[in-house]
Design brief:
This protein has helices at 81-97, 112-122, 164-176, 204-216, 228-236, 250-259, 268-275, 284-307, 329-336, 341-355; strands spanning 2-10, 19-27, 30-36, 46-57, 59-64, 100-105, 129-132, 136-138, 158-160, 181-185, 220-225, 241-244, 262-264, 310-311, 373-376, 390-395, 398-401. By secondary structure, it is an alpha/beta fold. It has 2 domains: 2-57 and 362-401, Urease, subunit C, domain 1; 59-327, Metal-dependent hydrolases (TIM Barrel, Alpha-Beta Barrel). Bound molecules: zinc ion (ZN).
Length: 406
């Protein structure tokens, strides 16, 4: 039977308008029609009354880590792949309950994200749509190669390899196990132990070798990259998206605009680190790097906005104090740093859908699209803080939440 959502205010993400008194007609898991509420007599249909709410497409988080839990101190060494998998499943479910009907998981331990994605797609467990990278690919001494004592080897969340041939092999292996995309650690990071988060770790040749393999498979790629040299190498090598992007020069920004490279700024991880900067729970070297990065980050983001770089929304949830299901602060931070509110909503919907290669399926509310829909009390298009007032989540035509989250 068809279901009808009666929408007080509706943002379809097909354009930047908010329409009043609309109806979304759903047949099974697919949207059949979006029209004014008074166009038909819906009295014989199953109607969900969202006439007091703001309705929009399901949110998409383009950067998170389902198997990381937001705790500090790297307790990962004590965990087995079983622990990571169960944790990953519960976190993915928390993300869906927070309105994120699709997520892009960019780096995990083993291939647990792919197992969870497949179990969700089979209907064995419930959760969001997942686009998965499996383990991230990084160099010896890069952010996924944790400096244990000599003799104790193994990365966390990643494959450690050096040289174009090893990169090709890693790319093929990750894709063999079912990844939708590749994730590289192009530079050092805030949470890893190096002193300069911008230091380049993978060369152009290394990334190009792996990206060529991804392109042959029709897969996308993302680069964790803080410094200009690493970002530029990734962009020139054909990366689909640059993650974090704390330090960028104008040439890099111009290149990203020209090549259509996506930028996922992820403001919220540094925000959390700085909230806890003086309480001793986060290592001082992490706090120091975060402090230095934020001012540059904001400025480069504004330059990217001006240059017309495609900017999506990602939260890096799983980093310290950045808990699954609690990541909507990113909307507020993106708006505060200068993005118009309607563009923030587009970033989290149609822009991210295109990045995830899910456009045509999700990210907009239109006939033929899958019924991934959220609703909010208040109006996030008027005040972005109302993004916290989530009260309805539907994925694939099925309702997961019809009560306030807050
Ligand atoms: Zn990340």
């Amino acid at each position: 039977m068809e279901k009808v959502l009666r929408c007080g205010r509706l943002y379809t993400a097909g354009d930047d308008l908010v329409r009043r008194d609309m109806a979304v007609v759903i047949d099974g898991n697919v949207i059949k029609e979006v029209c004014p509420w008074d166009r038909y007599d819906f009295s014989e249909r199953e109607v969900t009354d969202l006439s007091e709410r703001f309705v929009m497409p399901g949110l998409i988080d383009a950067h998170l880590h389902t198997d990381s839990d937001g705790t500090t101190g790297g307790n990962f060494l004590a965990k087995t792949i079983g622990d990571f998998t169960i944790q990953g499943m519960l976190h993915a479910q928390a993300d869906l309950m927070a309105g994120f009907t699709s997520v892009r998981n960019v780096g995990c331990e083993g291939y647990n994200d792919i197992a969870i994605r497949d179990a969700i797609n089979r209907g064995d467990i419930w959760g969001p749509r997942m686009i998965c990278a499996g383990p991230a690919i990084g160099a010896t001494g890069g952010p996924t190669d944790f400096p244990h004592r000599p003799g104790v080897e193994n990365g966390y969340m990643g494959i450690v390899c050096d040289g174009p041939d090893a990169m090709r092999k890693a790319a093929r292996e990750v894709l063999k196990h079912g990844a939708d995309m590749l994730k590289f650690m192009a530079t050092a990071g805030i949470n890893s132990k190096s002193t300069d988060p911008g230091a380049q770790k993978l060369t152009y040749d290394e990334m190009r070798a792996a990206i060529e393999i991804a392109e042959m498979a029709g897969a996308t790629s993302a680069a964790h990259a803080h410094g200009t040299a690493g970002i530029k190498a990734a962009v020139k090598a054909g990366i689909t998206s640059v993650e974090h992007g704390s330090y960028m020069d104008d040439e890099t920004i111009g290149l990203m605009a020209e090549k259509g490279t996506y930028f996922i700024p992820t403001f919220v991880p540094c925000w959390h680190i700085l909230q806890h900067g003086d309480d001793g729970t986060i290592a001082p070297y992490i706090v120091k790097k975060a402090r230095d990065a934020v001012s540059h980050h904001r400025e480069n983001y504004q330059k990217c906005l001006k240059a017309g770089v495609k900017i999506g929304l990602g939260t890096d949830t799983g980093t310290p104090y950045n808990f699954h299901g609690k990541q909507k602060k990113e909307f507020e931070l993106m708006a505060e740093a200068g993005m118009p509110v309607m563009q923030v909503l587009a970033a989290a919907t149609r822009v991210n859908a295109a990045l995830l290669k899910l456009d045509g399926k999700v990210g907009r509310l239109a006939p033929g699209m899958l019924a991934d829909i959220t609703a909010f009390d208040g109006d996030p298009s008027a005040d972005i803080k109302d993004i916290y007032k989530l009260s309805f989540v539907m994925k694939d035509g099925k309702v997961y939440r019809d009560s306030p989250e807050y």
